[in-house]
Specification:
Structural class of chain A: mainly alpha
Shape of chain A: globular
Strand content of chain A: 5-15%
Radius of gyration of chain A: 17 Å
Order of helices and strands of chain A: HHEHHEEHH
Largest interface: A-B, 48 and 48 residues
Oligomer: homodimer
Low-confidence stretches of chain A: 15-19
Mean pLDDT of chain A: 87
Distance between the termini of chain A: 45 Å
Number of helices of chain A: 6
Chain lengths: ~120, ~120
DNA sequence: CTGAATCCCTCGCGATACTG
DNA sequence: CAGTATCGCGAGGGATTCAG
């Protein structure tokens, strides 16, 4: 919970009894904030991938940003990072247990995105 | 679709047949990017609210930012803005039709947030 | 009450180059 | 292949003031 010292006053939506409680929505907002986070997660749904695999499918991300976002997701325990001591280096990223639990969120997002697109087109 | 001229190359996840197609996940990412968006939407789930009502429950947001985020959500057609010609001014914000469709996403997010919190606590 | 207008600054993000 | 290291820009965000 280190990173998520969230002031309860950030959000009065969940009228939690205890003060200084974490608001779930604020938490999710923080976890998913970042230009490439949900795309990375979405891409890992089908199984672990190597760094280059992820990068290949997110052509507009720079190495720095990809590393950055992966580290952040790793800190939040959504993904794991496994280094194979081989040469050339091989690093694998995959969803953790708690990372897998976010899949429904991603799926719902994807459904909404498609619905949004078709709704707009039909105007 | 004005705002969402999304290069297909941003995302190879949905292997759409047509090039320059919009990736649903990129779309959702753009729609929800912003520090207060999902909190505002989540708060409007229970019905329309006045500006001051929203502000009261998001104590750390400034007037400028709240206005800013509301305008953005309005541009994306997620919320409507209704001005009552009275004095003092009364402005009401509520979910549009396409805004209502995002509720499942918010609910799933909220569930995940709670699960995340309890999982962390049990470590 | 609900804004708009300013000023200002952090930091997210990108471009580029270098390493084991 | 999978990273670090630097530099720097610009947007996102915050504090304050003014207005209808």
């Amino acid at each position: 919970m280190e990173k998520f010292i969230i002031e309860h006053k950030d959000c009065y939506i969940d009228d939690d009894t205890s003060p200084h409680e974490v608001c779930p929505m604020v938490l999710v907002q923080k976890i998913l904030s970042g230009k490439w986070k949900i795309l990375i997660l979405w891409y890992l749904v089908n199984g672990p991938l190597r760094f280059s695999d992820i990068k290949r499918n997110l052509p507009n991300v720079t190495q720095k940003m990809l590393t950055n976002q992966l580290r952040s997701l790793e800190e939040d325990n959504l993904i794991y990072r496994k280094v194979y001591p081989v040469v050339p280096p091989k690093v694998e990223y995959g969803l953790t247990e708690i990372g897998n639990k976010i899949i429904p969120v991603l799926k719902t997002m994807h459904d909404y995105g498609q619905e949004y697109i078709s709704d707009i087109k039909n105007e």
